[in-house]
Design brief:
Elements (H helix, E strand, L loop, with lengths): L1 H13 L1 H5 L3 E12 L10 E13 L6 E14 L8 E17 L4 E18 L7 H5 L2 E15 L4 E15 L12 E15 L1
Antiparallel strand pairs: 1-2, 1-8, 2-3, 3-4, 4-5, 5-6, 6-7, 7-8
Protein name: Outer membrane protein beta-barrel domain-containing protein
Organism: Cyclobacterium xiamenense
């Protein structure tokens, strides 16, 4: 949680000049991550929240919009199977994002983009006897590359709802969690996210 607070502070701090220029977009959404390949046999799907801040402006080549910024997400991933009850991973993801909005009408726009960054994982257990000081304090780092696409429902220039479909490709750097984790350091996830965007012009 401390890492989450620090990450979000720097995200907002970096967007202060954008807020002054009245081109700031803030968004929050619920995110569901369905694991693919061997991971889905040992982990339950992830559910969490994502907060984002971005600069949005008109594309120089059309009437569409482009946005770039940063996202912070917090997730819990439970382990399945006998003997693993109560064991889970706490995951904090920080990514840089780019998005291109294609306007179909005043009320509807489609977007595509990508995110790249890092996920930081710590191991926890509901029962203290299941975790040691080493496993509860070690941080595992995973690189992320995530192309995405989705739709915005525009209520006004300042308010929109969004739905996003995303593919996460990740790879652990160095050691990786060993609570039932498959041997490969590569992992794949299909992500669905929905939330609200607030824009300040």
């Amino acid at each position: 949680m401390k890492l989450f607070a620090i990450s979000f502070f720097f995200t907002v701090l970096g967007c202060i000049p954008q807020a002054i220029s009245q081109e700031l977009e803030l968004s929050a959404g619920l995110t569901y991550k369905h694991l693919l390949s061997a991971q889905r046999q040992v982990f339950e799907p992830l559910m969490g929240i994502e907060l984002a801040a971005a600069r949005q402006e008109q594309s120089p080549f059309s009437a569409d919009m482009v946005a770039w910024g940063a996202t912070v997400g917090v997730f819990r991933m439970n382990t399945t199977g006998e003997g693993t009850a109560g064991q889970f991973q706490q995951i904090v993801e920080t990514t840089a994002t780019f998005r291109y909005d294609l306007y179909h009408s005043d009320a509807l726009s489609f977007f595509y983009g990508a995110a790249a960054g890092f996920a930081f994982t710590t191991l926890h257990a509901d029962q203290p006897v299941s975790s040691s000081e080493n496993t509860s304090t070690q941080i595992y780092t995973r690189g992320l590359l995530s192309p995405n696409a989705g739709v915005n429902i525009e209520f006004s220039r300042s308010l929109a709802l969004y739905y996003k479909l995303q593919y996460d490709l990740g790879k652990y750097f160095g050691s990786q969690p060993n609570w039932g984790d498959p041997s490969s350091k590569w992992n794949h996830r299909l992500v669905q996210s929905a939330g609200v965007r607030l824009r300040f012009w």
